């Protein structure tokens, strides 16, 4: 029975999300809120299927299960027949409308219903938006955020952005896209590799490593203007930029004094100061949300492991102990979780550690996972992996039970970094 | 078989060193690069094209392709490494000695030693591993009297494989440091 239902939901999703991505469900005992999205009035004539995008967002979060609406169209004024929606198995319902205005923009409205509480008490509110055609997807993500927050009490992350890199032949592109991988806009095209994009906490800049000058150097790139500043171009290699939570400081890996070592510098450039000193590799620094702790990778103990230390200096404390290859740490904004890549029997797998207890789980069944990054609400991880021989981006819940493969550009897609909440 | 080819190559290189070193026909990289195609992209003078990204859509920046360095193929400029190793194998000592003599013969010569890894593992960690290989070669050249000011050790990590594919044969060719005249 359960199996049957799961199969049904997966089929429904691949239809509902218009094949943009596929949500994979694994495991049992999931507590997901069943929700339906009626076809918005006027949606057929609009360039984006708002209701489908909203439902796909909610599904991807792992907190919701989509309920087939049967093509029923309801606007935000209509009073839904709650008993009929209860019979379909929905606990909640989104209704709405899309109206094209004389100036070419769209008026989008929606209402969220708790169909369990009934027609009189179940109105959970709604909003309206004015949007150009190009902004309609973003509006759908904002609606999904409203629904998510109303029904879970947590902030949604659908109206956030991600950065990633694609490689097609010898062409490398740095993209900024919606959190579902859609609506990608190119920030940089290069004939040489680009790696390690990292969002500034204000969401307006990206730091990254470019090989365009035949060595790795670090740029900070302003997304609104396209202007970029070469912030680390010291002798040797310059890499692994990470922002402090206040956006003022960058942690970087430099080899200018020999070996790959950690430094802190002003985000605007200037003279780096050494954070740690070892005769080993120290790299992949990342700030914890408190701004006072830096997690990083070091092979000082003989194999690459994750350590943490104070930004004020002092001796590092080892964090990972099992396995001989633990790299690419990411810390959730709420400080509870550490995501990283661990080599297990020759396979590189995404792991999530509960930092309080040290309990760690491998949450994928792929073998070439890379570069995890948390959603700003600490509920999802985006990471790169290989599927059917192609590089792909996935999101997963922290228990690994709900995964979605993000919409691909042409070519291989890699190096994801999840941006901050939109202000 | 491989060993034999190497031995012959090394012998050839050594005899070349004995007479006139022919290394100076190594092409110098053109660092100027292609023109930046959008006015908005800026301060770097590099070959990448950056672009504005707004809600509406932005135009991309094109870094363009710069000339392929065909000379990178020359075996005599490549030092190969064992898996997870940064030790220069004895058969490459003569290659390094030949380059050391060549670099020292002209104080204006600049050389980059570019470290590379195979495709396994993370990009940033591989960048650090490649750096370790490049620095091993740089140290070896330094011990032979090459001035630090003439050398720069950099890494491409796993970003620039010499051979594509995940076979052991391919990965063997990718664990390397390349001596590149600039």
In short:
By secondary structure, chain A is mainly beta. Chain A has helices spanning 2-16, 50-60, 82-87, 118-121, 136-152, and strands at 22-25, 33-37, 64-67, 92-100, 106-114, 123-131, 161-168, 171-178, 185-190, 194-199, 205-210, 217-222, 228-232, 238-243, 249-254, 261-266, 273-274, 282-287, 293-298, 305-310, 313-318, 326-331, 337-344, 347-354, 360-362, 370-374, 380-387, 390-397, 402-405, 412-418. Residues 1-20 of chain A have low confidence and may be disordered.
Please tell me about this protein's structure.
The complex is a heterodimer of chains A (423) and B (182). By secondary structure, chain A is mainly beta. Chain A folds into two domains: 2-152, Rossmann fold (3-Layer(aba) Sandwich); 162-418, Neuraminidase (6 Propeller). Chain A has five helices and 30 strands. The longest helix of chain A has 17 residues, at 136-152. Chain A is globular and about 70 Å long. With 182 residues, chain B is an alpha+beta fold. Chain B is 31% helix and 13% strand. In chain B, strands 2-5-3-4 form a four-stranded mixed β-sheet. In chain B, helix 2 (93-104) packs across helix 3 (123-143). Chain B is globular, with a radius of gyration of 19 Å. The chains are: A mainly beta (423), B alpha+beta (182). Chains A and B meet through strand 8, strand 9, strand 10 and strand 13 of A and strand 1, helix 3 and strand 4 of B.
What does the secondary structure layout of this molecule look like, with pairings?
The complex is a heterodimer of chains A (423) and B (182).
Chain A: H1 2-16, E1 22-25, E2 33-37, H2 50-60, E3 64-67, H3 82-87, E4 92-100, E5 106-114, H4 118-121, E6 123-131, H5 136-152, E7 161-168, E8 171-178, E9 185-190, E10 194-199, E11 205-210, E12 217-222, E13 228-232, E14 238-243, E15 249-254, E16 261-266, E17 273-274, E18 282-287, E19 293-298, E20 305-310, E21 313-318, E22 326-331, E23 337-344, E24 347-354, E25 360-362, E26 370-374, E27 380-387, E28 390-397, E29 402-405, E30 412-418
Parallel strand pairs in A: 2-3, 2-4
Antiparallel strand pairs in A: 1-29, 4-5, 5-6, 7-8, 7-30, 8-9, 10-11, 11-12, 12-13, 14-15, 15-16, 16-17, 18-19, 19-20, 20-21, 22-23, 23-24, 24-25, 26-27, 27-28, 28-29
Helix pairs in contact in A: 2-5
Chain B: H1 2-18, E1 49-50, E2 78-80, H2 93-104, E3 111-116, H3 123-143, E4 151-157, H4 168-174, E5 176-181
Parallel strand pairs in B: 3-4
Antiparallel strand pairs in B: 2-5, 3-5
Helix pairs in contact in B: 2-3
């Amino acid at each position: 029975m359960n199996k049957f239902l799961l199969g049904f939901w997966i089929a429904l999703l691949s239809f509902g999300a218009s094949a943009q991505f596929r949500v994979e469900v694994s495991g049992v005992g999931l507590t997901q809120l069943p929700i339906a999205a009626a076809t918005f009035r006027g949606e057929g004539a609009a360039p984006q299927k708002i209701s489908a995008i909203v439902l796909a967002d909610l599904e991807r979060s792992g907190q919701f299960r989509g309920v087939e609406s049967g093509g029923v169209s309801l606007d935000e004024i209509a009073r839904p027949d709650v008993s009929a929606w209860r019979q379909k198995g929905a606990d909640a319902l989104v209704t709405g409308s899309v109206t094209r205005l004389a100036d070419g923009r769209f008026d989008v409205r929606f209402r969220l219903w708790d169909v369990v509480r009934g027609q009189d008490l179940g109105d959970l509110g709604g909003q309206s938006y004015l949007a150009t055609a190009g902004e309609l997807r973003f509006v759908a993500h904002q609606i999904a955020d409203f629904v998510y927050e109303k029904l879970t009490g947590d902030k949604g992350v659908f109206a956030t952005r991600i950065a990633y890199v694609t490689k097609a032949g010898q062409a490398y592109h740095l993209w900024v896209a919606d959190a579902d991988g859609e609506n990608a806009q190119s920030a940089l095209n290069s004939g040489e590799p680009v790696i390690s994009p990292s969002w500034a906490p204000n969401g307006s800049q990206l730091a990254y490593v470019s090989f365009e000058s035949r060595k790795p150097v670090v740029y900070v790139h302003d997304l609104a203007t396209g202007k970029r500043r070469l912030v680390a171009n010291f002798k040797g290699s310059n890499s692994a930029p990470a922002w402090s939570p206040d956006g003022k400081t960058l942690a970087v890996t430099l080899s200018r004094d020999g070996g790959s070592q950690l430094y802190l510098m002003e985000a605007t450039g200037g003279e780096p100061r050494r954070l740690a000193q070892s005769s080993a590799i120290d790299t992949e620094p990342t700030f914890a949300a408190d701004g006072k702790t830096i997690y990083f990778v070091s092979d000082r103990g003989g194999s690459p492991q994750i350590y943490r230390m104070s930004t004020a200096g002092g001796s590092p404390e080892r964090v990972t102990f099992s396995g001989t290859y633990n790299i690419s740490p990411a810390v959730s904004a709420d400080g509870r979780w550490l995501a990283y890549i661990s080599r297990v029997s020759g396979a590189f797998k995404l792991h999530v550690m509960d930092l309080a207890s040290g309990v760690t789980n491998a949450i994928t069944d792929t073998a070439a996972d890379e570069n995890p990054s948390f959603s700003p609400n600490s509920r999802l991880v985006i990471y790169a992996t290989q599927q059917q021989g192609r590089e792909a981006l996935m999101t997963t819940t922290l228990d690994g039970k709900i995964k979605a493969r993000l919409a691909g550009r042409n070519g291989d897609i890699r190096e994801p970094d999840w941006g901050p909440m939109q202000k | 078989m491989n060993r034999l080819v190497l031995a012959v190559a090394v012998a050839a290189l050594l005899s070349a060193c004995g007479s006139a070193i022919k290394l100076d026909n190594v092409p110098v990289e053109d660092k100027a690069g292609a023109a930046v195609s959008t006015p908005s992209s800026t301060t770097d003078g590099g070959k990448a094209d950056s672009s504005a990204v707004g809600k509406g859509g932005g135009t991309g920046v094109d870094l363009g392709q710069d000339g392929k360095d065909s000379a990178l193929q020359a075996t005599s400029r490549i030092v190969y490494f064992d898996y997870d190793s940064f030790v220069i194998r004895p058969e490459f000592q003569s290659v390094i000695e030949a380059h050391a003599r060549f670099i020292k013969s002209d104080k204006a010569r600049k050389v980059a030693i570019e470290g590379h890894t195979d495709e396994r593992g993370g990009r940033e960690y591989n960048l650090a591993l490649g750096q370790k290989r490049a620095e091993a070669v740089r140290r070896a050249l330094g011990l032979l009297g090459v001035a630090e000011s003439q050398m720069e050790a950099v890494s491409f990590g796993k970003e620039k494989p010499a051979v594509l594919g995940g076979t052991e044969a391919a990965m063997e060719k990718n664990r390397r440091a390349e001596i590149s005249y600039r």
